[in-house]
Structure formats: structure tokens, C-alpha cells
Amino acid sequence: MSLKGGDRRRRVGLSNDETETREFEIDRRPLPDRTSAPRGGRAGYAGEDATWSRDRLSRHHIISAHNFAEGAAKIEQGDLGDIPPEEKWKYRANITAAVLSSAAFLEASINELYLELQKVTHSEDSHLRHELALLVNAWPQIVRSPVLQKYQIALSVTDADPYNEDVTPFAEADCLVRLRSALLSYGASWEDSQGRQQELEARLKDAFPPSPLVSASRPWFPDRCLSAGCAKWAVRVVQIFTNDFYKRMALPGRPLVGDS
Fold first, then answer.
1. Mean pLDDT, to the nearest integer, of 172-190?
2. CB 3.0-4.6 Å disulfide test: which of 101, 163, 177, 240 passes with 65?
3. How would DSSP label each residue in 195-248?
4. What's the gap between Cα 116 and its chain centre?
């Protein structure tokens, strides 16, 4: 599941453990890149003059995730012939931490948006758009929703373009959240919105290279799945998703970390 141009084909797990390849239409809205994504700093709410302060816990999470991914990549780039056990544990820890920190970035980002809007709403010189003020009022009903649904609800409340959940960037962000959940409490499969069984390996095996430190005979999850490629994929996916979200909301994007 590359994020770069062209049509995407996804391997879909079926209830009888077979897989098939299905073609999904890709969301044609241009995705942010290093040249188009705003770099933060002083920016307005779709033209309204306001200071947009983003250096909060979400920023710490994504920088941590990037550093963990780089640490795993450095181990992969070394001599793989005779890696001591403690180095293998460090490698696995870096990758796991990158995935967990990337998912934490997603959660912190949307929560901080609501808090930032609430702060601006209550300021003396507030010039917040009406739709964004509605978002502040809706927060008590949204706060307990699953993380990606918080993003969808925000788009709905503000009358912005919602995500097609079957295509990039939402589909990959959903895979990242599910990978995080599998690391915390693994289940071999889950159901999509149509009730079809979707296996973790079928959804993610083509998204990044497997770990070169692990034999091909080992199970895909967690052994071969947890690679430096997996860690870097996690960092990239959440940043592309959140910056695309801010474009839909007509809000300034975030500074990018790493090679996203």
C-alpha cells in the first residue's frame, strides 16, 4: 500500500482464510508533501488572524516515533550476521515504540485541536469561524469516540469533505490504529464495515518490507511485521493523514518530521 501515485490494489482476507486482491478507488484529493504542507508558525483559521500554537504533546509523540524508527533502521543497516540478543530486544523495542507513539500522535492531535479551538473561542478577540465554534460545542459528545471517528465527526460538524474510509489516507491510518491495537491485545482478524474478516497480514504485508533480522519461517505478526520499514511507515502514515485532515478543515498544517 504505497502512498505514492497510481492506483492501489489491496489484498483482502476472506472468512475462509483465502485472500483476494481488490481494487479500490483512491481519494483524489491531493495529499500533502514536503513542499505543499504548511510549516506551522503564525497562521490563521482559513484567513483569520490567530496564532496557531502546536508545540504540544502530539509534537513530542511524532518526534519520538521518528527517532525510534531511525534507531531501528540503524540496527538493520549494520552487520546482521551476529546480532547479540540485547540488540535484538532494542530493535524490537524501537519499532514497537514507533508504532505506539505514532498512534498516540493521532489521538493527541485531534484532542489538541478541540482544546485549541476552545481556547480561541473564549479569548477576548476571538474571530473563529462559525463552523469551528460548532465543533467546540459538539466536543462533549465526541470526546469518547474512537480516534479516527473524531476526525470524521469534526469534518461532518464543520461541513467539510469527509473521508472515504476505504481509501488512502484514511484506510492506512485505520491500519495503523489496528496494528497498535494488535500490539496491545492481539486478535488474529477483525471485521470491516461490511462484516468481512480482514486479517492483519493481508492488510499490511505489502505496506512495508519485513524484518531482515527474522527468518521467513517465523509468523508474520509480530516477528516479521515489526521492521524498520514498519516503524517508518507508521510515522509517515499519521503525518499524511493529519495534514490532509487540516487541509479539508481549511486550517494550517503541521511541520513534518522525517521523510514524510
1. 86
2. 101
3. S-EEEHHHHHTTTSPPPTTS-TTS-IIIIIT-SHHHHHHHHHHHHHHHHHHHHH
4. 21
Q: What is the pLDDT of residues 128-167, one digit of tens each?
A: 566 777 777 777 788 889 999 999 999 988 889 999 999 9
Separation of alpha carbons 142 and 155, rounded Å: 12
What are the grid coordinates assigned to 18, written together?
483465502
Whether residue 237 has pLDDT greater than 80: yes
Residue keyed to cell 482476507: 13
The x, y and z cell numbers of residue 228, run together, are 524498520
- Is 185 exposed, middle or buried (CB count within 10 Å of its CB: 0-12, 13-18, 19+)? exposed
* Residue 201 CB contacts under 8 Å (≥ 6 apart), including other chains: 13, 220, 221, 225
The dihedral through the CA atoms of 161, 257, 5, 98 has a sign that is: negative
% of the chain surpassing 70 pLDDT? 68
3-class DSSP state of 12: strand
Q: What angle do CA 147, 150, 156 make, to 5 degrees?
A: 150
Task: Identify the bridge partners of residue 189 per DSSP, sorted by sequence position.
Answer: 199
pLDDT per position as a tens digit, 198-228:
688 889 989 999 999 999 999 999 999 999 9
For residue 10, how far is the Cα from the chain centroid? 18
Distance, in Å, from the CA atom of 71 to the CA atom of 94, rounded to the nearest integer, reads: 6
Say how far apart CA 78 and CA 167 lie, in whole Å: 36
Q: Which residue has the cell 490563521?
A: 44
Of residues 168 and 125, more confidence is placed in 168
Long-range Cβ contact pairs of 82-90 (< 8 A, separation 24 or more): 83/213, 88/213
At residue 37, the pLDDT reads: 36
